[in-house]
Amino acid sequence: MKKPDYPLEALRAGMQGTAVLSVHISAAGAASRVTVYRSSGHPLLDAAALQSVQQFQFTPARMDGVARASWARIPIRFAIDSPMALPCPSTWLPWCQAGGTTHPR
User: Fold this and answer.
1) Cα-based angle 57, 78, 74 (whole degrees, multiple of 5)
2) pLDDT score, position 5
3) How far apart are CA 81 and CA 78, in angstroms?
4) Are 2 and 83 in contact (CB under 8 A)?
5) Per-residue pLDDT tens over the stretch 31-79
6) C-alpha 98: how far from its chain's center?
7) Which one, of 56, 65, 1, 3, lies nearest residue 26 by Cα?
8) Residues 6, 78: Cα–Cα separation, whole Å
9) Residue 2: pLDDT above 80?
10) Distance between CA 53 and CA 63 in Å, rounded?
11) How far apart are CA 67 and CA 64, in angstroms?
12) Are residues 48 and 6 in contact, defined by beta-carbon separation less than 8 angstroms?
């Protein structure tokens, strides 16, 4: 699972918080429905968490050896002192100064 991008605007504004998402995990392990269970307090961080978790591939729950759909709550923490808050590694500096997000696509 890839950590969510820390939105550059949120980072610059000093926004931090934990979004807790409610995730419906299909029998195939896909995040088939993702909603905000508890907001981080910042819509920008909540949106980044939602976008990231929608791409996650999970190991589905099993009952009697058969994969089953299930629900889970997933906390996504945004903290300025975390590795995902590093907006501009030195190798990306010119790109970041041009207004890029946390990493080039």
Assistant:
1) 35
2) 87
3) 9
4) no
5) 999 999 999 999 999 999 999 999 999 999 999 999 999 999 999 999 9
6) 24
7) 56
8) 7
9) no
10) 24
11) 9
12) yes
